[in-house]
Each structure stands twice: as C-alpha cells, then as structure tokens.
TrEMBL record:
Pfam families: Hypoth_Ymh. It comes from the Bacteria. This is Conserved hypothetical protein CHP02391 domain-containing protein. Residues 44-123 form the Conserved hypothetical protein CHP02391 domain. InterPro entries: CHP02391 (IPR012654).
Amino acid sequence: MYAIYKTTEYQIKNDRYYPTQLPFHLIDERILDLALKFNDDPNRSIFNAFIRLENIVQKRVNSDKHSSALFEYAFCSENSPLICKSEDKKASQATARLFPNIYKAFRNEHAHNEVSKSPQTSIREFLLINELYLLEREAIKNDLG
C-alpha cells in the first residue's frame, strides 16, 4: 500500500479534498427528504429523523411508549415485539441495543439544545440514524412477543 496511507496524517492534512456531503444512494427513502434538506439545517434534519423513527416504531409495535423506553420495549425487552435479523442471537441482541443507545447518545442533545457541530460530525450522526432506519426495516416480528 502507499506509504501516505500508513497513518491518518495524509487524510487530516487533505481533509478539504474529501466531499462533505451525505451519500444519498445509501439513505433510507423514509428520510431522503430530510437528507435533501440536511445542508440547510443539519440539527433539524437529525432531530426530525429521530421523531419519525419513533413514530414508525410506535405504529409497528402498537405502543404509546416514547423515547428510549419505546426502543427498549420494541427491541430489547424479554419477548420484544421486534427482533433484529441475525443468524446469531447475541449479535441480534447487540444490534437491538443500538436503538436505545444511539437515541440516548444523540437525540436528547438535538431536542434540548441548539447544536452547532462540524459538517463531518453532523453527517456521521445522520448516518447513524439512517442505519437505525435500515435495521428497523430488516427487523422481524417476534412470534413470542
């Protein structure tokens, strides 16, 4: 491999040459409208993506629970209504934990503060939420739930 890639120094020094935009071809269509508005107001797009995901999961599991409690119930509780698709039970459980953990780690900040982050950081957060949308779509109903 090229010597310049042995450390991240090259990437850091030349960061301005890498595009700072969302990879639209990877975005779940349920939040594509938010992705298209992302550059205008990243904070609003991120916050609205969380709200929309909450509404989707509420309807899917027929629950009036909110916030991380909803995701705990829907994916992580014993006999939860939804199971993250995986051949390995432990991997499925670990994937399910992403829902409440990402919600707790990122959503509240956007709900309660005027957030100002670098474009790169905002993009990473939006892509985390996008991954939750993709995982939610792949989740299957638990016959025991």
